[in-house]
Fold this sequence. Notes:
The structure holds 2 protein chains of 2 kinds.
Chain A: E1 2-5, E2 8-11, H1 17-24, E3 32-35, E4 38-40, E5 55-63
Parallel strand pairs in A: 1-5
Antiparallel strand pairs in A: 1-2, 3-4, 3-5
Chain B: E1 2-3, E2 6-7, E3 12-15, H1 22-32, E4 36-43, H2 49-59, E5 63-66, H3 74-88, E6 92-95, H4 108-120, E7 124-129, H5 133-141, E8 148-149, H6 163-172, E9 179-181, H7 187-195, E10 200-203, H8 205-208, H9 213-232
Parallel strand pairs in B: 3-4, 3-10, 4-5, 6-7, 7-8, 9-10
Antiparallel strand pairs in B: 1-2
Helix pairs in contact in B: 1-9, 3-4, 4-5, 7-9
Amino acid sequence: MKITVNxxxxxxxxxxxxxxxxxxxxxxxxxxxxxxxxxxxxxxxxATVLTEGDQLEVLAPMQGG
Amino acid sequence: MQLYGTEVSSALLLGTxxxxxxxxxxxxxxASGTEIVTVxxxxxxxxxxxxxxxxxxxxxxxxxxxxxAGCHTATEAVTTAxxxxxxxxxxxIKLEVIGHSDNLQPDVFALVEAARILSDEGFKVFPYTxxxxxxxxxLLEAGCEVLMPWGAPIGSGQGLRNPDALxxxxxxxxxxxxxxxxxxxxxxxxxxxxxxGMDAVLLNTAVAKAGDxxxxxxxxxxxxxxxxxxxxADPIDRRDMAVPSTPILGLxxxx
Lengths: 65, 255
C-alpha cells in the first residue's frame, strides 16, 4: 500500500498504524502521529487502519523558541 | 509568579533553538537560571535525533513549554498542540498561530479560536499575541490565564517597539501573569519589560545568536532581576525640568 510519510512516498505492508510505524523504523514511544491532519494518540495506533494514499505525519521533539 | 497554579521563581523563559551546539545550550540554560524552556516538534528523521534532544533537556530539570511555531491556521495549531501534549507529557502549550510571513505577526483571530478549543480540551494555553487590549480580553475569555504579548517581531532584536501599549495592558490586566515574548535584543530591553511590571520575559535569539551565548544568558538574567527589583521599588516619575538633588538650604553666599 502506498502512503505518504512526512511528505515522502512510502510502501508499507502493515495495515495498522502501529505496525506501519515499526515497519518504517520509527521508535513508537518517542514520536507523535497525525493521519490526514488528525492527531492519532499512541493508544489508538493499533486500532487505526491505514488506507491507500493516506498522509501520515510523524513528529519528534525539536529545538524551538 | 504563578503560571496555571505552578510557582515559578525565575522571570526568564528561554528558547532552545539556534545555539551553536547542544553543550552551549546546556550551559546557557544553566547560566540563565531559567526554570522553563521552550521546544517544538518537527518531522522525525531516520536517526531519531529528536528523542536524544528531549532527553538532554529533561536532564536540565527545566519544565518544558512546547510551541506550535510555524502553524498558520487554528486547525494546524490545535493538532500540533495535541501531538505536543503526548510527546512532551505536558498540557502546557505556547500557542503560536502566524498570520503574516514577513513579520511573523500572530493571526489573533485564529489564535483566539485555537485558544478556546485547546482550553476546552484541558490545555494550559500560553498565547503568543500582539499588544492589543481587546485581543487580550478575548484570550482571557477563551480560557487563557496567561498573556504573552510581543515586544517586537520574532528574532528582530528591536526591543519593545510599543512600551505604551504594554503599559496599558499591564494596567488593564493587573492580576494576569504577563510575559513579553519575542523581539528582545539586549539586556536593557529585558530590563525595560520588567520595569513596566511584566512578570517575565521569553527570549531565544538574543541569547542563542549572541557572540557569547552563555555570557548573554547570564546578562539577561541579571537585567531581568534588576528590572524586576526596580519595578518593585517604585521608580520616580519623569520630570521635564531639573530638580536639585543637593539641598539648597544652608548654601553659602560666595559671590
